[in-house]
Amino acid sequence: MQNKSFIPEVFLGCLVMLTPLSVASEPVIVAHRGASADAPENTLPAFELAWKQGADAIEGDFHLTKDKRIVCIHDKTTKRYCKTNLVVKDSTLAELKRLDVGHQFAGQFKGTSIPTLKEVLAIVPSNKKIYIEIKCGAEITPFLVKQIKSSSLSDSQIIIISFQAEVIRRIKEVAPQWKAYWLSSFRKDGNGQLVPTVQTVERTLKRIQADGFSSSKDLIHQDFIKDILSKRFEYHVWTIDQPAVAKKFLKWGAQSITTNQPKTLREQIMK
Length: 271
Hints:
Elements: E1 15-17, E2 28-32, H1 44-52, E3 57-64, E4 70-72, H2 93-97, H3 117-121, E5 129-134, H4 141-149, E6 158-162, H5 165-174, E7 179-184, E8 187-188, E9 194-195, H6 198-208, E10 212-216, H7 222-230, E11 234-238, H8 243-252, E12 256-258, H9 262-269
Parallel strand pairs: 2-3, 3-5, 5-6, 6-7, 7-10, 10-11
Antiparallel strand pairs: 1-2, 1-12, 3-4, 8-9
Helix pairs in contact: 5-6, 8-9
């Protein structure tokens, strides 16, 4: 969620799903890229640690490889994770699997590899959920649908998210049974107006048949959220690690909060 552009290409740390009724409601925690504050992001150790920390769901980022396999990695290249710089879409699964993406973290994670979607789906408990962020284009759709359907997860455990509106549209066309949210951050134009506007967001959500909208916490205001909810769309927000900010968005009606500190944030919100 570091991308600050209007239609960003990046998403999240940990999602915290909460009911919009009150701050006292028990939060549903979605660990962004797993327990990424304590383990290498988007890896099996990070996801397994998220379950141990009490997360109710995990969020992971997914790309399609050269040989049409789906791997869990945030960036388009491996440069940020290891000494070898490979472009994910131009690399085979075997090439990517040879990389150590845990060496920059604590010593216990040395030798950690990039997981496949299949591997990640396999460690989602029956009472938990997974947020699948599609980082590439709609070309991943047939491979994604096949992989998810071959897993043991139920439809209610699957949520698809993307900054690309057309990806969400395509997913809802072929798999309407899965919830899907469009993601975006905001900027201000020369007149100080938010871009995208609430009208643009609502038109886009309707056109692509999205179930909801998930945005950055920056710049957005209460009336914007109220309008989204009034059109019967869900609203979710990221990335928030401060309890006071989280409580503010809950009062505004946010149905999920993205956080890098799921365990700590839950404890602070519930005080």
